[in-house]
Amino acid sequence: MKLQAQVGDEKHEVEIRREGDQAFACVDGREYELEVSEPEKGVYLFKNNGKITEVFVSPRAKPDQPVLVQTGGHSLAITLIDPKRLRGSGDRADHADGAAELRTAMPGKVVRLLLEAGAEVKKGDGVIVVEAMKMQNELKAPKDGIVKEMKVAEGTTVSAGDLLVVIE
User: Fold this and answer.
1) Which one of 58, 74, 84, 145 is CB 3.0 to 4.6 Å from 68, fit for a cystine?
2) Which structural domain, as residue segments, surrounds residue 66?
3) 114: left (phi over 0), alpha (psi -120 to 50) or beta
4) What is d(CA 161, CA 158) in angstroms, rounded to the nearest whole number?
5) Distance between CA 25 and CA 106 in Å, rounded?
6) Is the whole model's pTM more than 0.85, yes or no?
7) Contacts of 80 (CB under 8 A, 6+ apart)
C-alpha cells in the first residue's frame, strides 16, 4: 500500500507491505523491517533490531481527519493521503450522480458481506467487513442507493485498491 503522510508542512512517501506479523515499510526511501503486534485496540508494539517501541494511535472520526500518534512522549498529527483515492472524480463523499465504488485500503480478507446485490442502502450503512492487519474494518456506504454488484465473496483475499462493491 502506497500512501503519503503529511506531518505539518512536510510530506513523506510511505509504502507498507504486511506478511503475517512482519511489516515492511519504506519511508522516503528508507527501508524498515518490523515485527508488529496490537495487544489492544489503538496500541501497537513495533520491534526493530531488538528495540520495542510502543505507539498509541487515536481513532479518527472522519477519513479526512489527521491521525493522532503518540510515542515516547511525542505526539504527532498525521494526515494520510491515499493517491489511489485521489484519482476518482470530484467529491467522493456524495457520489450524487452515478455509481459509488467501495475499494480496499490495504490487503486483507473479506470476512462478512452485510448486504446482497439488489439491497437498498443508506449513506453510512455497513456493507462489507474486511480483515486487514488482524483488524476487522466495516466499509460503509458513501451514499444512499442500491447495491448493484458485490464483486467478492466471503473468504476472498483482496489487494489494496481492489473493487469490492458497486452502489448506484
Assistant:
1) 58
2) 2-81
3) alpha
4) 8
5) 13
6) no
7) 3, 4, 5, 6, 67
Among 50, 81, 112, give the residue marking a domain's end. 81
- Residue 133's alpha-carbon distances to 5, 108, 129, 158, in angstroms, are 19, 7, 13, 13
User: Which of 81, 106, 135 is where one domain is finished?
Assistant: 81
Per-residue pLDDT in tens (0 to 9) along the chain, 168 residues: 788 888 888 889 989 888 877 888 899 999 989 888 888 888 888 898 889 999 998 877 676 678 888 998 888 888 887 766 544 434 444 445 568 888 887 788 999 999 999 999 998 899 999 988 788 888 888 889 999 999 999 999 988 778 899 999
List CB contacts of 96: < 8 A, sequence separation 6 or more: 143
H-assigned helices in the chain = 83-86
Is residue 45 domain-shared with residue 98, that is, in the same domain?
A: no
